[in-house]
Structure formats: C-alpha cells, structure tokens
Amino acid sequence: MLSFLPDFIFDAVTQISPSFLRARGVALLLLDFDNTLLPYTENAPSRALLAWIEELQSFGIKLCIVSNSHKERVPQFCRKYAIDCVTHAAKPGTKGVNKAISQFKVSKTQTALAGDQIYTDILAAKRAGITAIAVKSIHNHTILLKLRHLLELPFLAMARNRRVKI
After folding, report:
1. Phi-psi bin for 83: left (phi > 0), alpha (psi -120 to 50), beta?
2. Of 30, 81, 83, 158, which sits with the fewest C-beta atoms within 10 Å of its C-beta?
3. CATH of 8-162, one of 3.40.50.1000, 1.10.10.10, 3.40.50.720, 3.60.15.10
4. Residues 8-53: pLDDT tens digits?
5. Pairing assessment for the beta strands 131-135 and 62-66 based on DSSP bridges
6. pTM for this predicted structure
C-alpha cells in the first residue's frame, strides 16, 4: 500500500547526520533542491549547508540532487560544488530516482531521499521503495507554497512520532 508518510522527519536537511545515515545503511542520499537545500529565491548556499555537504562526503555518503527543476541553477550549483544531479526528475514518478540509484550502483535499501514536499519527494521515495526523509521547507514565499504546506500538515501530524530530535 502506498503511503504519504515519511519514514523520518527533520527540521532541516543539515540535521541529517552521517551517523544517522550510516546506522540505517544509507550510502546514497538523494536530495531535493528547491526549498530543501536552497530557497527558490536564492542561489548561494549557506556556510552551514556547504559544511554539511562536505561532512557527508568525508564520511563516504554519496550525494545526488534529484530535482524536478528545468532551470539551469540546479546543474550550475552541482557543477560548482561537485555534486551529481538528475534534473527533470518527474517526481512523484520514479524515473529520476531510479536513474540516480542506477548511476551510483547501490541498492534501494542503501538509498534515502530527503525533500520538503510530501506530494513529490516523499511520494517518489515511497513509490521507488527507498527511505523517505521529510524536512521542513526553507521558505514558503508564495501563496501556492503556503497552501501546499497546509495540505501536507495532516500527513506530517500522522507521522509526528517519526520526527528525529537533535
């Protein structure tokens, strides 16, 4: 049965530690881009985000951005910070997720996807059979993003016992 409930919930993507991932056998962390790593309105990452990326990589966690975006800002970011990416991912479909998994030659049990949207990121992870990690949106700056967030609240409430305390 398909679920909209994330396996884990964090307040921010940077709270997902290498030890948390390692303890669950995760070798590949797929990441949504917009509102998970950076707000839609910014292109420059914070120092905290860059330090987190570096820390995960130093622990051997492979990273790949899997984004529905058609904008050049995602590949530019990935080139600049040496992170692989799959754009035009068509989440909640599994095309982009499966492409990333096969690119890294890891099993689905070794893969997790972290993202801010239940209806795209979490659903794509669940449909692909990988660990689904929800993170709080960085900035819901439009009425549509705010409405989407309201529609996700029941699922987050049902999964509240899956919130990871840092």
Report:
1. beta
2. 158
3. 3.40.50.1000
4. 999 999 999 999 999 999 999 999 999 899 987 888 899 999 999 9
5. unpaired
6. 0.89
